[in-house]
Amino acid sequence: MKSKLLTIYLAVIVIFMFASMPAAAAQKELKVGCSMALSGPVSVVGIAWRNGALIVADYYNKKGGLKVGNDHYKIVIIDGDNKFTPEGATTSSRRLVERDGVKLIMGGIATPDTMGVQAVTEPAKIPILHTAAADEPMIDKKYSFRGFVCFREMMPGLFKWLVSNKPEVKKIALFDMDYESGYFGHKLARKMAEIKGLEVVYDGYFEPGSKDFNSYLLRILAKKPDVIFNTASPYPTWPIIIKQARALGYEGLFMENSPPAVADNIKIAGKENLQGLIGFGYGTEGSSIPQGIKDFKKEYMRLYGEWSNYPLVYVPALYAFFAAVEKANSLDADKIVAVLEDGSDWPIPLGFTGRFAGAETYGLPHQWYAPQWVLEVKGDKAVAVDEIPISDMVAGWD
Amino acid sequence: MYILISQSLINGILAGMIYALIAAGFTLLYGNGGVLFFAIGEVFMLGAVLLYCLIEGMSISYFLGVVIVMALLGSFGVFLEKVIFRRLTGNDLTFAIGSLALGMLITGIVLKTFGERGKGLISPFPGSFKIFGLVIAYDKMIVVGVGLVVIVALHLFFSFTKTGRAIRAVAQDVEAAQLMGVEVFKVKSLTFCLALAVAGLAGALVAPLYYVDAFMGTPVLMTALIVVVLGGLGSFPGAIIGGLVIGVLENIGQTFLGGTTTLLLFMIVIVILILRPEGLFANE
Amino acid sequence: MSEGTGKTIKRSFAYLIALILLLLIPLIVRSAYFHHLLIMIGLAALLGMSNRLIINSGAWFMGMAAFYAIGAYGLVLLREKIGMDYWSAVPVIGLITATIAIGLGYATSRVRGIPFAIISVAFAEVIRLTIIKTPFLGGHKAWICPPPEPIFGITLSSKISIYYLILVLCVIVGFLFHRLEKTPTGNALMTMAENEELAESIGINTTRYKVVVLMVGALVAALTGTLFASYIGIIGPTSFSLMTSVLILMTIVVGGMATIWGPITGAAFITLLPEILPGQAADQNIAYATIVLLTLFWLRDGLISLPKQLKTFIERSSAHKSAS
Questions:
Q1: Structural domain total, chain B
Q2: What is the CATH number of the domain that holds B66?
Q3: Looking at residue A1, what is its pLDDT?
Q4: B252-256, long-range: CB within 8 Å, 24+ apart, which pairs?
Q5: Residue B280 lies in a domain
Q6: Minimal Cα distance from B118: which residue of A?
Q7: Which residue of C has its CA nearest to B31?
C-alpha cells in the first residue's frame, strides 16, 4: 500500500515537472510579467495598474507591436499575483521569469514586495518598473526603475503652490497610516515644511484598518492646523478621515500626495466636505490637462466600466518602458537599461514628456520624472490648477 | 480634556454596539454546540455588501433593506446549519477549520461579484447635532438605536419565550435539553439563523457609516474573539456588555495610548483565558 | 512472519528509491522555478508536520505562524544586530523558542479545547503586532537575510543547497515523528488526545507531555523559519499573518492527520494548486476553500486516504454489480 502511495507521489512529481517547464516561446511575443498585488486589499491598486498596462500594450500592439530588428513583437502581459508579501513576490517573479519567459516585469507596488521581486530579477537581469517609495530598492539595483513621481519629487511643487496660493496656511498636521511609506512621507514633509516656513503642529499615524478616526482627529484638531496633509494613504481611508474631520467641525484644508479620487470619494465623504481638497498628480479635468489623458480615461472606462486615478500614476512611465525596447532595438536587458539611462526625453502619448534621471539623488538615473499638476476639487471634479514642471521637482530641496 | 474623553466615550459606545451585535452572533454559535464560527467577519461583511446592493442596485429604502438583509442572512444561517454543519461530525477543530474555509469561500465569491474596490454608501441620515460641546452624528445614533432595540428584543426572547429558553437550555446541556423534550435540531437551526442575522445586521448598520468592501470583515473576527473571551464564551449578556466595554476601551485607548491598543487587548485575552478559560464574566 | 519482514523490506526499498529520486531531481530538472516549488513544499511540509504533532496530542494550536516568525526574525536580528552567522544563531534561536514555548505550555496547561485555540490565535497576533509596533524589530520594514555561511567546507549559498538542507530536515523530522507514534510516548500522546482525564487517571503527566510537544513543534517551526528567511532572503511581517497559520492548518486537514504523509501531501497540494489553477487569486481561494470543505465532508482522513477510498468505492460497486 505504501508503495502505491509512492507511485502516486512520483506521478505527481513528474506531472508538475512538466507543468513547470518553460513554455515554448511563441514567435514574436514580448512577454511582460505583472508581479503586483492582484488579490487582497491592495489589489485596488494592482488591478488598476494592470488594467492600465493592458491599454498601454494595446497602444503599441495596434501599431503592429514593438519593432526590434526585422521583427515586430506583440506585447503580452502575464499576471503574477504576488499577494503583497516578499515570498509571494519571489514566487510570482520566479514563475514569470522561469516558466513564462518574461523579459520585463511590472512590479512591485510597495517596498517589501518590490524587494522580493528584485531578489529574482536583479540576478536574472530582468528590467523592472516598480513603485516602491523607499530608497532601498533604488540603490545599486541595475535593472530596477521607479515608475512614478515619488514623494521627494512631488513635494517641492506641491508645497510651493500651497505657500503661494494659500498664504493663510501656517500650521500643518501630518497624518498617515502606520506604515513605511507614511514614515518616509512624514520625514520629507517635515523637511519641506521647515524649508517653506510652515509649522508642523501634529505628526502622527493611525492603525491600518481603522475606520473610526475620531480619537486621532480630536487630538489633531486640538492643535488647530490650517491643513491636514496625508502623504501616502490608500483609498478609501482618506475620504473617511475627511468626512469625520468635517463632522467634528474642522474647516481647514486637506491635502494629499496623490490625485483625489473624486467620483469614489463623493459617496464616502460627501461632496461639500471634499471642496478645496488639494492633490497632486494627473487629473482628468481642466483645460490645462492634455487631451491624451482625457482620452485614456475614456478608453479605460469603456473597457472596465469604472475609473479611479490609480492607472495614471503608473501608466506614463510604462509607455516609456516599453518604448525603450524599440529604441534599444534589442531584447537584451543591458541594452534596454542603457537606453533608459541615457537621459533622453520620452514623449508620452498622454500628451507630455518625461524622462529617467536622478543619478545625483539615487546613484543611478532610474527615477521617472514627468510634469505633474496640482489638483483642487471644485464641484464634483478634481481640476488642474497649476502645472509643476520637472525642473521644480528636484530644485525645491535646496 | 473633557472633550477628548467624552467624545471617545460616545464613539466607544457606537463601536461597542457593533461589537456587541457581532459578538452576540459569535457567542450564540459557540454556545450552540461549541462551534467556533471563524467566518463571523465574512457574515458581517456580507450584511454590508447585501445592503449596498439592495440600496444602490434596487433602490430599496434603508430600513427595509436592513430587514431584508437580516432575513437573507437568517435563512443562510439555517441553510448552513442543515446542509453543512449538521453533517460535519467530528470534533470542534473540524468545525473551526470548516468555518475558516467557509469564510474564504464567501470572500472569494464577494470579490468576484462585488469587486475589490471599496464603495461608499450615501448615509441615509446625514448631519449631526452638537450637545455639551460634543458632536453626535444622526446616523450613528440610529445605529445605536437599532442595535439597542434588537438587543432588548433578543434578551426578552431568550428570557421569556419557550423557544428562547429552549435555545439557552441546549447551550447549557444538550442531553438534558433533549430529555426535556426540546427538539435540538430545530433549536440549532434557529440559533444559526439568529446568529447570522445579528452579525449581518451589524454589517448592514455599519455600511453607510464608512465604506463597503470585501475585506471589511477581516479585523472583525479578532474583535469578536476578544469580546467573547471577556464576556464569557457562550453568554449572550456577556457578549453585549463585553462588546460595549471593548468598544469604549478601544476608543479611549486609541485616543490616549495610540497604536498599541490591539496588542494590549490580545495580551489581556491570553491572560484572562489562562486564568479563567470560560471567559471573564461567564456565569456557567 | 517472513511475509511481514518481506513487506518491510519492500517498503524500506521504496523509501530508499524515493529518497534517491528526491536527492537527484534538482540535478535532472534544472529549472530554478521547479526548485523553488520544491523548497516551498518542503517548508510547508515541515510546518504542517510540526502543527500536526501538537494537534495530535490534543492541543488545538492554530497559531503556528508565531513560531515561524520567531525563527525567521530571530535569525535576521541576530545577524543584523550581533553579527552572528547562521550556525551560531540557530542554537540561540532554539533556546529562545524553547523558552517561549515552555512558558506558553505551562501557562496554558490547564486550558483545553476552544479556549486554547483562541489563545493560540491571540498569541500569533501578539507576536505579529509586537514585530510591527517595535522599531527595533523592524516594524513594517522588510529585512534582508543572506544565505547560510559554509559549514564543514560545504558552501550553502545556492538555492539548490538550501533545497538539500530542507530535504534533510524533512526526512529527519518526518522519520522521527513517524517513529514517535509507535513508542510508548506516542501512545501516551494519542491517549491524551482522545481523553485527557482518562490519560491523567492512568498516570500520564499530561502537562509535561503537552509542554514538550509544544516545544518540539515550536522548535521545528522556528528552524523552518530560519530556512525560510535564508532562502527568500527578505522577510516582513506580512509573511506571518493569521492567513499563514490558517494555510498551515489546511495542509494538515486536506492532506490528512492520520499519518506523517498527510502534511507532506497537503503541503504539496497547497503549494501546487496556484500553479495548476492559474487565474485570479479570488478563484484560487474559492477552489482552496471548496476543496477543504469537501475534504472535511467526504475525505475525513485527507487526500492520503483517497486511494483507499477509491479502492473501497470500486470494490463496492463491482460487488454491487456481481450481486445483481
A1: 1
A2: 1.10.3470
A3: 45
A4: B252/A215, B252/B5, B252/B8, B252/B9, B252/B12, B254/A207, B254/A215, B254/A216, B254/B8, B255/A215, B255/A216, B255/A218, B255/A219, B255/B4, B255/B5, B255/B8, B256/B4
A5: no
A6: A236
A7: C114
